[in-house]
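Why does residue order matter? Because the sequence determines the fold. Keep that principle in mind as you read this record.
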Amino acid sequence: MDIIDVWAQITTPRMQARPWLATLHRWTGSSADSVPDVASTIGAMDKAGVSTTLLSAWYGPEGSLITNEEVAAQIDQAPQRLRGLASADLTQPMEAVRELRRWVDGKRFVGVRMVPWLWDLPPNDRRYYPIYAACVELGVPFCTQIGHTGPLRRSENGRMLPYLEDVMLDFPELVVVGGHLGFPWLDELVTMTIKFPNFHVDTSAYALHRLPQGFVEYMRTVGKNRVMFGTNWPMLNPAQCLEGLDLLGLDQAGAAGFLSGNARRVFKLG
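Structure:
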């Protein structure tokens, strides 16, 4: 069965060294010195049967952690297997829009990702709004994090109500993909799904056997056509994340949609 990983990154040494990643290093037994490359990423994909991975650029208040140029160079090494999600500096709104227009073509770069906990700004802050307009104009999803924050940063900005709800009311055409489940605010996840047909979620940063039971029920029912597979590589590898797939109780159509179909539709992957 085809599998698409919608949240991964090939981290750089400068990103791995950030102090707020200490919790993830502790949980995963990794270190700031363990930096993946394209070869190890493709190897992990092959082991788990992942056909396509979306690699994120990362920009934050401390500067670029993974540049769009670096992601483009990574894609160049495996163009049949890798796609990109661009990012930009929120403090320079017009340059950020130009940067996204420069990279996002819907073919190699198929979306935009920004995580509010890194900026310590909720998604309804005015500084994001040029980014949302650019995503609508470019016809690509805006990818972000919902739910609590694993790194040593505040979790409040990951609440969907009212922050992300405000955004989707102001930008009814914007397609949003929220990563990391939205836990512990699963009731807000259901509310957003029912209210907004262009709201989606991915399971990155979780092995499937560790999904909360409430989220599993969501996958079987109201979220059936909204949930996508993700890993948060290199925090977790695809094989780890797929453990417990058979325990979810998804029917054939539900499993196919979760593993690749929903992502292929939302990101317009050929």
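The chain has one domain: 4-266.
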